[in-house]
Amino acid sequence: MTPKAYRYRFYPTEEQEQLLRRTLGCVRLVYNKALHTRTEAWYEHQTRIDYKQTSGRLTEWKKQEDLQFLNEVSSVPLQQGLRNLQKAFANFWAGRSKYPNFKKKRSGGSAEFTRAAFKWKDGQLWLAKCNESLPIRWSRTLRAGCEPSTVTVRLDASGRWFVSLLVDEAIEFLPQIDKAIGIDAGITSLICTSDGEKIANPKHFKRLRYKLRRATKALSGKVKGSNNREKARREVARIHAKIADARTDFLHKLTTRLVRENQTIAVEDLAVKTMLKNRKLAQAIADASWAELVRQLEYKCQWYGRTLVKIDRWFPSSKRCGHCGHVVDKLPLDVREWDCPECGTHHDRDINAAQNILAAGLAVNVCGSSVRPDRHEPKGRLSKTRKGKKQKPKS
Predict the structure, then answer these.
(1) Do residues 145 and 186 share a domain?
(2) Which residues contact 362 (CB under 8 A, 6 or more apart)?
(3) Which amino acids are annotated catalytic?
(4) Residues 103 and 209 reside in one and the same domain
(5) 201 and 143: one domain?
(6) Contact (Cβ atoms closer than 8 angstroms) between residue 161 and residue 10
(7) CA distance 337 to 210
(8) Judging by beta carbons within 10 Å of its beta carbon (0-12, 13-18, 19+), is residue 330 exposed, middle or buried?
(9) pTM for the full model?
(10) Least buried of 253, 367, 383, 394, by fewest C-beta within 10 Å?
(11) Tell me: the pLDDT tens digits for 320-358?
(12) Number of structural domains, the chain?
């Protein structure tokens, strides 16, 4: 059984929206108060407060006269908020994320309900304290016999309501096929495959950049705290949501096709965070969303019985001749085609890189390690003294 989340949009009634907004506000308040308490305890007494202690504080807060409204909503989302805060601190201590931030009202918010706080019957969902089922727009149905174990309600910055249902589902592996592919990520072409196929980069942000610029400029001219400023803020959020939805939809369709058509997929282990420090290409790299592309390939390959291989990010895929193995010293980004000085083979930069990635990925898959297939020390490789330098982004 594999945990899988289904997200749907729903349109709450006026009564449901009031209750849900109160719930989100209470979750945000409890989370921020717990974060403030933990931060203050560390800076003043150098002591760590865990989930159990913050849960005890929540009981005390509910007894305070000015916080009686916390008793008007379900207690489960409040406890789940404290658990999420504990998880955020665990990630911070392990070095996987930054220090937790305070939640803001303008960002919307979310509330998580476990089995004790909702009812699922005949394909209808009732949340705690709600008298009516949520009017969900069922864009796709759950598999027969699947019941949600956790329900998460979210309000995004543009004012849209979403509900996510987490279910345990038996996902069948796809039939095995004898095909492998290498993928080279870029900016002009989002990906180039070892088969010679180039997928153009839709550039979703660039398509709506000027519209977003006008909306942002209009927002900056509104008086803070006014209704007109709130309307302008929602308009900016709607444009951002439109960009994000288009990008996510495109990547899901692309990665699903790649997983269905190939048994083995080889990609580069790109340092996207480091590459985003390039001010000239940061916007284009962020819009391409390479990290999300690889993330989707990872879990979909795991779901459907495919193999995803990540090769060493320092592997000279672009500068290596796929015919004789010669590695050139330099290959500027503006050079899209080149001839090998050793064997004279003419290469398309992206296709050659994708073919080299495939060859390295197959070797890594067989050897079971990330070493280069021929243990070759190529020319132009960054020396150990330059460890930590920015990786040049591909275009």
Answers:
(1) no
(2) 180, 264, 266, 309
(3) 184, 268, 350
(4) no
(5) no
(6) yes
(7) 33
(8) exposed
(9) 0.85
(10) 383
(11) 888 888 888 888 888 888 888 888 888 888 999 999 999
(12) 2
